Amino acid sequence: MLRxxxxxxxxxxxxxxxxxxxxxxxxxxxxxxxxxxxTKSRINPIFVGGLAAVAAGSLALGNAxxxxxxxxxxxxTIREKIAKIIEDExxxxxxxxxxxxxASGTFDKSSKTGGSNGATMRFKPESDDPANxxxxxxxxxxxxxxxxxxxxxxADLWTLAGVVAIEEMRGxxxxxxxxxxxxxxxxxxxxxxxxxxxxKGAPPKTAAHVREVFYRMGFNDKExxxxxxxxxxxxxxxxxxxxxxxxxxxxITFSNEYFRELIENKxxxxxxxxxxxxxxxxxxxxxxxxxxxxxxxxxxxxYVEIYAKDENLxxxxxxxxxxxxxxxxxDFPSSGWFSWLWGx
Length: 344
Known about the structure:
The protein is mainly alpha-helical. It has eleven helices and eight strands.
């Protein structure tokens, strides 16, 4: 998600969690124009964008039970406990997506550093990176689960929370598998500044910045646009980022609404004392400069138009891209029954 951007709002209902291993039916989100109430937790972007925002699903194992993957770890119960946190406070769903995104989005394919493996956000300076402002809340919410199940790594727990959250918010099922390991100190913390900014001063520079961040991880333009669709979730709040407002009117429902708003709505620069952002005619919705480049840049725009028309395709492409994001830099088993069980 984009750096320093998101606070979150709560909806009144979320889909109840499914039994692990069962295939969820993806609900098509409709355009909702109900006013959203502000949540008590206000966080930065999730790529939520963050993209700095951000979708996930259940542990996709076909008919195989996740318990078979590791006899020592009860992933089914862990998943259910994560879902319960979200059911009790829906605004925690986007927060978990943002945690998973920011923990994973520091990967550098050239140096093979950063990424979800290691859970290095537990250490400074990453934990104090302004881009991660508020994510201590998410980590603390998951700490009781870690204490009850110490055998799961923080890196696996955080990424699992992201996929469970997206499914609970009516998003697609995303394949997930364990195997990430935690670093024991700050020696492996990547440098701050690897997450996307909301604005670089001019559309060409902002578009170049977005590409630089995602190309560094190994994504292409289509994957960039798909991942930025997570901006359907959450909102920006002035006391965190300086920016203000939600991207969509259904802030904790994962859908293609973000792309529809970009294409179908009229966006003009907001006249206010804050940083440059754009608003719709109602003044209730906003877009960041890094969002606007998706319709200003021809290569980005063609995917925005496709996803605005085809939510199923967006869900499919997002699920693949988000799985890739969470697995960057992780050395999973490449052969044998364990790898086969997890769909590789």
